[in-house]
Write a structure and sequence with these properties.
The chain has 2 helices and 2 strands, in the order αββα. By secondary structure, the protein is α+β, with helices and mostly antiparallel strands. The protein has one domain (4-52): Alpha-Beta Plaits. Strands 1-2 form a two-stranded antiparallel ribbon.
């Protein structure tokens, strides 16, 4: 992520995953904190959403 547009794009991509409750994207730390319902989604689905948005999760 390089700009605020990236932050918004990644945040929206993650938020669109069914079961995601809260997303906090921090550009300075290059970090994303996600709260999600484990019964509805998992980390791999969230990573896939990030990839579909054009970014590579670390």
């Amino acid at each position: 992520m390089a700009c605020n547009h990236c932050v918004v794009r990644v945040g929206r991509a993650i938020a669109s995953v069914k079961g995601v409750v809260e997303v906090d994207v921090n550009l300075e730390k290059r970090e994303v904190v996600v709260n999600f319902e484990e019964s509805m989604t998992d980390l791999e689905k969230i990573k896939a959403a990030i990839r579909e948005a054009g970014y590579e999760p670390l």
